[in-house]
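Pasting as-is:
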Amino acid sequence: MRTLLFMFAIGCASHAQPYQEPTPATGGFTAAPAVVEDWVQLGSPVATAPMQQTLVVPPTIGPLHQLMVKGVTGQARIAQILLQYSDQRERTVDVRKVFGPGDGQVIELREPQQVSKVVVFTEPESTGSIVLLGS
């Protein structure tokens, strides 16, 4: 029975989704994104070495329509992003992508929302840094 469970676990692990580079089909880019005049940097670039990074978004930034994750250095392996809105609602976005320098992913927020906090969850193998921008 243990052998059967072990074989099942190995079989499931072999079908796990690997991290992928961002692609235009998923809203990602590997070159300069289209010019958007109102992208605002939400904070300083943050290292992705710890498993979690929290960024408090100043209320002066205003409601956001989009969030952009952009690689700055190394190979940042982003698993998920948790958005906390000013009314305490939360939204989790599965990213599961590797961001090299200049790589990015745009996340649509459906409707303008006042974001109060962004928590970025990374993988242990993550090296490098990212920056978050909003528009």
